[in-house]
Amino acid sequence: MGRTLYGKIWSTHAVASGPGGRTLLYIDRQLLHEGTFHAFAALRASGRGVRRPEANFATPDHYVPTARRIRIENAELRDKIDTLADNAAAAGITHFALDDARQGIVHVIGPEQGITQPGITLVCGDSHTSTHGALGALAFGIGASEVAHVLATQSLWQAKSRTMRVTVDGSFPPGVHAKDLILAVIAKIGAFGGSGHTLEYAGPAIRALSIEGRMTVCNMSIEAGARAGLVAPDESTFQYLHGRPYAPRGADWERALARWRTLPSDPDARFDREVALDAGALEPMATWGTSPEHAAGVTGAVPDPAGEPDAARRGSLEKALAYMGLVPGQPIEGIPVDRAFIGSCTNSRLEDLRAAAAVVRGRKAAVPAMVVPGSGLVKRTAEAEGLDRVFREAGFEWRDAGCSMCVGMNGDLVAAGQRCASTSNRNFEGRQGKGARTHLMSPAMAAAAAVTGRITDVRRLLPRHASVGRG
Amino acid sequence: MEPFATLTAVAVPLDVVNVDTDRIIPARFLRQPRSAGYGNFLFHDLREAEPDFVLDRPAYRGAKILVAADNFGCGSSREGAVWALAGAGFRAWIAPSFGDIFFENSFKNGVLAIVLPGERVAAARAQLHANPGAEITIDLPAQTLRLPDGGIVSFAVDPFRKECLLAGIDEIDLTLRHEREIAAYEARSRAEAPWLAAPSSGVAGA
Q1: Which structural domains are found in chain B, ordered by start?
Q2: Rounded to whole angstroms, what are the CA distances from A26 to A11, A78, A367?
């Protein structure tokens, strides 16, 4: 029987077997951010060192201010950023510091620098590590204990997961993006539909996605409960990686390519579960609740919890609507927003900024809106294209790279009761700030919400498709 | 790590699905060192908003077992969620499904996470609601639970995790027993994929 991409990466990284069918899996790369201070502290307390500093890469992202950061005034934030720099320096780990253009969100800079490569295992103490699966790397988030374990041993005990293939046929209609697809996938299989599975996204619509689009899809695998999401590497992947700073070069590039071409799942590979979607049937999406599975098409409406037979789920839906200040049957389109956030490891790459700018161009922000590029290099490239001017002229704030308002750990927060159109990945209660109400959507949809002040079908704002949608 | 064998304790029912780790511990507390007492941060904002939150009802004082609903601990990988629960005294949690990373983090901290079919967990929660402050007994060696109504339920647990819990094993110590195999893997990888063994940026500076 044929093997899956996941099975191939798994078997090439098996170091040893343990009790209960567990495998000691070799970890090729680990990415570190400020939150790693817990793991370094645990490592120090146990008197252990870092086994392979060169296999680890560090950059500050969670706690970094996205404005005025030459002298960081908040001592707590400064301490977290300095601690990462100190820990990296002491261990001899490559560190992209705050004043380095390569600094950015770990999940943006891994691929950008060519650190993320097909067929490798990559971990990070962050659940959105699934992002890197877009290049065909087995990548997953881990907790602080496991970060310390990888620092000390460059390996992890893992039980093999089940596999689920998500096949996406058809092609994306205008105004529909990778974010809409993954929100539709999560709505379909549920926030724990992927638990215990590694997802592999396949099919013509996935092949047609850019690598950045694939990152958006893989990024939110965790929101469907799956620790890892994968896309088989193909010519787009190789083209994306070629010439990147940490990608193999010369003869190594040729050897690497030969290996990478053997990775895709065999045609007769069997998956434990199969799910299919038609990209052509998708519309722009937005979430209305407090779980990413609470997503609907923009022409849809807030559902009625009364229709939910399970008592725990019904109660949770009622709580979600109360928290969000929405009522059953309320149309998604037209929900007023107080601000917009374009950024995060889900949607802060160049194509995301281009898609948002295309909507913003020639319009004005109706509510406070900010754009936070995923890395210093994304910011620089966007500025070279003039995207910053498009945003600034429309009244958007143009910030420096970091996780920012996705999680608010740096102080970029949504106020209690405020409603935010956000390109991030989690609409959890309090995620963007205590009492904050988050509506997840694509960069194009967030831009449309920013310039209209309410959730708006972005297709209305696209010149050639002004008549699409309701009314 | 404190070994885990048997536990008889008050159990708290929590009926909410998809309880994410942001709710268990809001992000702003994660900058604190572990010594800060993470138990104080448990469900911080939820408890502020809901004065009658189940954990704060007197009947559940001293609870060590949490009986939750589907997808408990989903979302962020923050181990602080486990530290907050453990810091508040919990040693075991039971649910029909857990966030995968949270599940893993639980065992790393000597906590037993038990997966049971949804209807069994719902029935256990109903018993706890009917008798607030009732106890559940967990027997890890026998892999059984005794519910408040006396019913005995078997549960599955990965033998590796069971062994680590029973003995309070530090996983890194266990892994370092495989040092030769790790080194052999690295030698093989250096030969087959030298670009992975010695990563270097082809570009000077940025």
Answers
A1: 6-169 (3.20.19.10), 170-200 (no CATH)
A2: 10, 34, 48
Chain A CB within 8 Å of residue B159 CB:
yes
Q: Do A316 and B17 touch (CB under 8 A)?
A: yes
- At residue A150, does pLDDT exceed 80? yes
CB atoms within 10 A of CB B126: 15
Task: Return the bridge partners of B93, or none.
Answer: B66, B113
Closest Cα of chain A to B61: distance in Å? 23
Q: Could you give the CA distance from residue A260 to residue A256 in angstroms, rounded to a whole number?
A: 6
Structure tokens at A398: 């143009």
* Share of residues in chain A with pLDDT > 90 (%): 95
Alpha carbons A192 and A376: distance in angstroms, whole number: 34
CA–CA separation, B190 and B194 (whole Å): 5
Q: In what order do the strands lie in the sheet with A23-26?
A: A14-17, A23-26, A155-158
Q: How many CB atoms lie within 10 A of CB A357?
A: 24
Q: Taking CB atoms and an 8 Å cutoff, what residues of chain A touch B162?
A: 20
Contacts of B80 in chain A (CB under 8 A): 38
Any idea which residue has 């996605």 for tokens?
A: A209
Tokens 């910053």 appear where? Answer: A388
Helices (H), A175-310: 178-189, 204-208, 211-219, 235-241, 250-260
pLDDT in tens, B32-74: 999 999 999 999 999 999 999 999 999 999 999 999 999 999 9
Q: For the structural domain made of A5-166+234-264, what CATH number should be given?
A: 3.30.499.10
Beta bridge partners of A26: A155
Q: Is B165 on the interface with A (CB under 8 A)?
A: no
For residue A106, the Cα-to-chain-centroid distance in whole angstroms is 10
What's the whole-number average pLDDT of chain B? 94
Interchain contact, B198 vs A54, CB within 8 Å = yes
Q: Encoding tokens for residue B49? A: 């908003």
Q: Report the CATH superfamily, name and number, of domain A289-465.
A: Aconitase, domain 3 (3.30.499.10)
